[in-house]
Amino acid sequence: RRGARLHRLECDPAGVLRLKLYQRFGTLTLSDAVPVLENFGFAAIEDTSTELDGGRAGTLHDFELAPPKGCDPAALLARAGEIEEAVSAVLNGAAENDAFNRLITASALSSRETGWLRAWYRYLRQSGMSFGIPTAVDALQNAPEVTRGVLDLFAALHDPAFAGDRARAETEAAGAIHDGLAKVKAINDDRLLRQYRALVDA
């Protein structure tokens, strides 16, 4: 069983975060940990490991991290609980390890919302879309208004747990998507984002 805690020390340089990973049995290899952290957008700078009770009580890994590009460390710490839960789920094999996880940190999406975007991506791929995961994630991250709008539109149209005025929420989400798409410069990003919108709107 593996657990995580995101934090920083007062003496840490600006722009540096720390992530403590607890491995209950044995040690956590860098080849297991680093790809997970990179898929969340972090860059591992250093890892200090400490065996507890000679390793019998597990191992504590203290990673020094650079945050995802463009992310405010304070904003990430404000969402530490959600990020810790997401990282732990991946390390424990309960969630998927791919670049979509970067949207949890860089775009402040929930694990559930990220799961929707991942599932829709797979459907679009099966339907003939050729874009790879990195391209899709970059497009979604670089167009936050569109991404948020697509998620809100899905909730308004299809989420049985939605509470509120569905018609109003649908109109507002559609407007956000329209305005966001007007700011997208890359034609491939525009094409991909419109496919997401069309799928949710179907």
Overall structural class, as computed from helix and strand content, comes to: alpha+beta
Mean pLDDT: 94
List the uncertain runs.
Answer: none
Distance between the termini: 41 Å
Helix content: 40-55%
| Helical segment count | 9
Order of the strands making up the biggest sheet: 1-2-4-3
Rg from Cα: 19 Å
Order of helices and strands: EEHEEHHHHHHHH
Tell me the major beta sheet: 4 strands, antiparallel
Oligomer: single chain
Q: What percentage of the residues does DSSP assign to strands (E)? A: 5-15%
What's the overall geometry? elongated
Description of the structure:
The longest helix has 16 residues, at 111-126. The model has no long low-confidence stretch (mean pLDDT 94). The protein has 202 residues and is α+β, with helices and mostly antiparallel strands. It is built from nine helices and four strands. Strands 1-2-4-3 form a four-stranded antiparallel sheet. It has helices spanning 30-39, 73-78, 80-91, 102-106, 111-126, 133-142, 144-158, 166-181, 187-201; strands at residues 2-7, 17-23, 43-51, 59-66. The termini are far apart. Strand 3 and strand 4 form a beta hairpin.
